[in-house]
Structures are given as structure tokens and as C-alpha cells.
Design goal:
Distance between the termini: 75 Å
Structural class: mainly alpha
Strand content: under 5%
Number of domains: 3
Largest sheet: 2 strands, antiparallel
Shape: elongated
Number of strands: 4
Number of helices: 12
Helix content: 40-55%
Length: 410
């Protein structure tokens, strides 16, 4: 029983007219010392005791028994004699005995009361951490969106149901932005809001963004790098499929198995058609990209293989892999220049360490983006890059101020 409960019991006890400890102290301050009393003071001692059911549930004595005790007390007091001090002492002792019985009764009643019922833990509301800088604070704002990326402070990977839409969203954004300012993966500052939205999160919520950065920044970096690798590999592999060449396998190993079969065809595909190979004006007229038309004019993007790759096959394979949805299947100036440059680098067979042949690869950096910008200038020049391909003609119309304003990426 706590202090508050004891205070309440004391108040109830006094309200019923019972004698508490303070009254006892006033009547009997010291051992065997009694205050002066009038003879009629004993009438106050005739108090009604709580009733009982015989088992002590409601008290020790009934009213009849109390009257008997009081009458016996008076008889005993009268039998003592005329000694007032002894009478007072005896009466006081009996009163204290009655008071002690009443206090014991109160304690017994308190013990028989049912214990306070504790709340059921299963019915208590779940604890929610206050909103703040900790990653777990973001959970409060997502209770109405159960199908969202977990921000529990523990997960580190995009699990089932979230990875596919995030990869698709990041891939579409990268394909739209590549070649404009970078040849690498989509920068994290641009990729994070896109990934959060695809994962069912609120990219504008500072708490959710903080939690997302804490948990998923390394994972998103891996997704961005892998997305670029997959799209560029699909593009090159589909080009080889169109020309009935085997795929590039184990490109980073010491002895790639298909490299001997690739060496001669790769050189043919990446160089201009015979008669133009030594002319710097036609260095970008790769044979997979340029050919003579029916009027004997050398045009770029004129080969059926290039148009099949650029218009249908690449997008179909990318969509089948869950990378580029139909809405994202649109070339812009930067992405077209980048993929032309990537094919040129990938089809280059170089001499590596120890004199072994190795596949070429594109390394991100200032040199790469500078080369992509050079290809953009070539694509926008109708004289340097003559074509009838409707996609490139549309891109030129979308960038009427190329060289003055940033290239369009729509």
C-alpha cells in the first residue's frame, strides 16, 4: 500500500468517527501518564464497532458484543474502587485495546480488497519514438503507408517488393541524364529522392530522408552502378546478337573465352567503311552505324542494324529486364552520344599487361565527358553528321540553341 492509499484510508477512518493515532497521542503522551478527564468522558468511548460476517470480512465484533464489552468495562471500572487514577488508567487501557482492534480491522479489510488490475500489454498502444534526428523517427510519418520501404534502423538492402521499382526508377533517371554532365552512375543527391519515391517514402520529409541516408546510401550506390553496367551491357550484347557474334564473357579475366573470335569483327564494326578509314572527317562513321544509301550518299544511322538496335531491340531487352519502362524509352542528345562512345570503347581490343589482349572499357572522368560532348557537337552538325534518321532529326529540333543553352533531355 503506498502513501496516497494510506492517507485516503486515514481520511475515511476519521470520517466514520473512529479514533486515529493522533487522538491517541493527545490522550496518552507518556507511559502511565493520563490527562485529566471528566467522568462523562467515558460516554465517547461507546462507539459502534464494524459489523462482521463471522469470518472477519467486515470487522471483529458486532454491535451487541461491543455493548457487552463496554458494559463489562464499566463494571470492572466500578469494581476497582474510588481510586480515580486507577479507574482512568483501566478505562484508557480498554479504549486503546478497542482502537487497536479497529486498526487491525482496517488492515484486514484493505488486504481483502482485490489488487489493482494491471493493463494488458497486448492492448496498450505501441510506443512511438518522438520525431527527431534518429532514423527511427521517420516511422511516425509512414503509419498510413504500410507498403513503404522500412526505415527501422536495421535494414540495409532493398528487399523484395521494393528493389524492382527502385531499380526501374533509377535506371530511367540515369538513362535520361547520362551524357549531360557525367558518364558515371546517377549522383546520389539525384538518385535518393527518386529511390525514396519508388519505395513509397516521402522524399520531402527531412526525417525520412535522414533515415533513408542512414540505412540505404551504400545500397543505392550499388544499385546505381549496377544499373549503368546492365544497360550498357545489354546495348553491346544486343549489337553483337544482331551481327551474330558471341557475347562478351568474363571480360575481366586473364583469358576471356570469346575474345579471339571477337578481335577481327570488333575492329571492322568500330571503324569506318573501306575508303574512309583514314579520313579524320569520318572517324565516327563506324560501319555498324553508317553506310551508303540508295543515292550513294554516306549517311549516319542508316544501317538497318543500327536502327533496329536503337529503335526496338535495346529498349525491348531493357524493359524485359525491368530497367526501362515504355515512358523512359526515348533517346536524347546526351544518352545517344554516350552509348555511341561506349560502343566505340567496348569494341576496342587493346594489349594489356603481359602482352595479352583485353577488352576495352570506358572509364568515367573528365576525359570521358569531354569526348561525349565532342560527339554531341558532331551529332548536332547536319554537315558533319548527315542523316535521315527521324530520331536524330527530332533531337536537333529539340535543341535549337545547342552550344548556348544546355541540351534538352526530354
Amino acid at each position: 500500500m503506498d502513501d496516497d492509499d494510506e492517507d485516503e484510508d486515514d481520511e475515511d477512518f476519521n470520517a466514520n468517527g473512529d479514533t486515529n493515532g493522533e487522538e491517541v497521542g493527545e490522550e496518552y503522551d507518556e507511559e502511565f501518564r493520563c490527562p485529566e478527564r471528566h467522568d462523562d468522558g467515558d460516554e465517547d468511548d461507546e462507539e459502534e464497532m464494524p459489523a462482521t460476517d463471522g469470518n472477519g470480512a467486515s470487522g471483529f465484533m458486532d454491535s451487541d458484543l461491543v455493548e457487552d464489552v463496554d458494559s463489562d468495562t464499566e463494571e470492572q471500572v466500578d469494581g476497582i474502587g474510588d481510586d480515580v487514577s486507577m479507574k482512568q488508567l483501566f478505562a484508557h487501557t480498554m479504549r486503546q485495546q478497542n482502537q487497536t482492534q479497529q486498526l487491525l480491522l482496517k488492515l484486514l479489510q484493505a488486504q481483502q480488497q482485490p489488487a489493482p488490475r494491471m493493463p494488458d500489454p497486448n492492448q496498450m498502444p505501441a510506443y512511438q519514438m518522438p520525431r527527431g534526428g534518429h532514423p527511427n523517427a521517420a516511422r511516425n510519418s509512414r503509419q498510413s503507408r504500410p507498403a513503404s520501404l522500412p526505415l527501422d534502423g536495421m535494414s540495409r538492402l532493398f528487399g523484395p517488393g521494393f528493389r524492382a521499382p527502385i531499380v526501374k526508377a533509377v535506371a530511367a533517371a540515369w538513362f535520361k541524364a547520362v551524357g549531360v554532365t557525367s558518364t558515371g552512375p546517377l549522383p546520389y543527391g539525384k538518385a535518393a529522392p527518386i529511390a525514396m519515391t519508388a519505395g513509397g517514402l516521402n522524399a520531402a520529409d527531412a526525417n525520412e530522408r535522414s533515415a533513408f541516408d542512414f540505412q540505404y546510401k551504400p545500397e543505392l550506390a550499388r544499385v546505381g552502378s549496377k544499373t549503368k553496367q546492365l544497360l550498357t551491357s545489354i546495348f553491346v550484347d544486343q549489337l553483337l546478337t544482331i551481327y551474330q557474334l558471341p557475347s562478351i564473357v568474363d571480360a575481366g579475366s586473364a583469358n576471356p573465352p570469346n575474345l579471339p573470335a571477337h578481335k577481327a569483327p570488333f575492329h571492322t564494326l568500330r571503324t569506318p567503311i573501306p575508303g574512309f578509314a583514314g579520313d579524320a572527317r569520318y572517324k565516327r562513321f563506324a560501319s555498324w552505324l553508317a553506310c551508303f544509301n540508295e543515292h550513294n550518299a554516306l549517311l549516319c544511322f542508316e544501317t538497318p542494324q543500327s536502327r533496329k538496335l536503337l529503335e526496338t531491340d535495346f529498349f525491348a531487352r531493357a524493359e524485359a529486364k525491368g530497367l526501362l519502362p515504355p515512358a523512359a524509352q526515348k533517346w536524347n542528345l546526351g544518352s545517344l552520344a554516350f552509348f555511341i562512345f561506349f560502343v566505340d570503347q567496348r569494341l576496342k581490343v587493346k594489349t594489356g599487361t603481359g602482352g595479352r589482349d583485353v577488352y576495352g572499357n570506358l572509364k568515367d572522368g573528365a576525359d570521358s565527358i569531354a569526348e561525349v560532348e565532342s560527339i554531341c557537337e558532331w551529332l548536332m552538325d547536319p554537315i558533319a553528321c548527315p542523316t535521315t534518321w527521324h530520331v536524330l532529326l527530332t533531337i536537333r529540333q529539340q535543341n535549337p540553341h545547342y552550344g548556348v543553352a544546355p541540351p534538352a533531355v526530354a
